[in-house]
């Protein structure tokens, strides 16, 4: 029964992710990084929010929490299912969109800062029920504050000046026609078939046209074989035979899998180094995960928009930060649980803002839902490999070693032997830095490998990004 419940609950979340991401990427095709970052950020912050709500309920009955989690999202879906829809992003763009994105970013940062403060205060100070309720009310106000944006549109029948709207419409129509013309012609830039030769620009005009015609003929032949080009709409099966897609998937597996293994084992990791209560690290990781998704989307958008460089350079930075955080976990120096949690949570969250945006760019949005959900297989696969096989086995091995030493020591003390016998049927526990030393170092190395794969993706796609975003910016 638990297996069935987990299956239904997990796919319930998958439908939310797919519907939200696909719809919003279609509605904001020129702001994929911020859009994905904001959506995935609030998704990553839910555990801290639900923890605060549960604290207000103040009940020891876990069934109440499960009922709240089951009913709440369903009511949201029912209330919004007739409202949220694709509206044609290239036809709805406004010059003020950037300001509204910055407003939502500000709310994100304010919300994360507020939750960090609330978590720390509740951890060190015993608050009264009235104060907890007040803190939760403020939390709800911050959560619903982005509704100011659609209310502004409703109250302002003409959000843009008429002249600006006419110019904007004319520009967008021209741009749409240009994009359509480009879609009707074979693309010259391809990472899988052939790149544009560096000497083609130095050829005379007639020779250059002939060379381009030859390249286009080759690309037409490749298309006839069912192999689309970068920036076109791949099907899932076409993406599965693309080298770049698998490099992205393996990089995601190594980075996100390591981060998820840390999240899965935060309780044991914190207890092993002397913390009695692990809930503060769970909440803080959720908040850092949130900031990583917001920051990853924002940083990657700056990289592709202002520098016309591949989005995966931001993922390389995130995986390097995770490697540093895992190294700190292995060293177990004083205070490293807080710093390591910050770095790993930040890097893990960045994966889920950068990778979906990059895949939608490189492989198109028409079948993005199928490709995104295939990419998410990296999460449970990474959890199985890193958490189920590496971390758990090493933890059990160290726990057995410690139990064996305790048994030998207990032979010298009958009283100690009696106390140990009372706990003989309980689960083995490991204490001290050795519990996660080897596993943390191993995952740190895997994160460095993931960063290397991301750099390979950067090298393979930098010409495509440069060509595409230079044409957009000009």
TrEMBL record:
<protein>
    <recommendedName>
        <fullName>Nodulin-like domain-containing protein</fullName>
    </recommendedName>
</protein>
<keyword id="KW-0472">Membrane</keyword>
<keyword id="KW-1133">Transmembrane helix</keyword>
<dbReference type="Pfam" id="PF06813">
    <property type="entry name" value="Nodulin-like"/>
</dbReference>
<dbReference type="InterPro" id="IPR010658">
    <property type="entry name" value="Nodulin-like"/>
</dbReference>
<dbReference type="GO" id="GO:0016020">
    <property type="term" value="C:membrane"/>
</dbReference>
<feature type="transmembrane region" description="Helical">
    <location>
        <begin position="246"/>
        <end position="266"/>
    </location>
</feature>
<feature type="domain" description="Nodulin-like">
    <location>
        <begin position="1"/>
        <end position="151"/>
    </location>
</feature>
<keyword id="KW-0812">Transmembrane</keyword>
<feature type="transmembrane region" description="Helical">
    <location>
        <begin position="371"/>
        <end position="395"/>
    </location>
</feature>
<dbReference type="InterPro" id="IPR036259">
    <property type="entry name" value="MFS_trans_sf"/>
</dbReference>
<feature type="transmembrane region" description="Helical">
    <location>
        <begin position="133"/>
        <end position="155"/>
    </location>
</feature>
<feature type="domain" description="NFD4 C-terminal">
    <location>
        <begin position="240"/>
        <end position="401"/>
    </location>
</feature>
<feature type="transmembrane region" description="Helical">
    <location>
        <begin position="436"/>
        <end position="458"/>
    </location>
</feature>
<feature type="transmembrane region" description="Helical">
    <location>
        <begin position="64"/>
        <end position="88"/>
    </location>
</feature>
<feature type="transmembrane region" description="Helical">
    <location>
        <begin position="37"/>
        <end position="57"/>
    </location>
</feature>
<dbReference type="InterPro" id="IPR056555">
    <property type="entry name" value="NFD4_C"/>
</dbReference>
<dbReference type="Pfam" id="PF23262">
    <property type="entry name" value="NFD4_C"/>
</dbReference>
<feature type="transmembrane region" description="Helical">
    <location>
        <begin position="313"/>
        <end position="333"/>
    </location>
</feature>
<feature type="transmembrane region" description="Helical">
    <location>
        <begin position="100"/>
        <end position="121"/>
    </location>
</feature>
<feature type="transmembrane region" description="Helical">
    <location>
        <begin position="339"/>
        <end position="359"/>
    </location>
</feature>
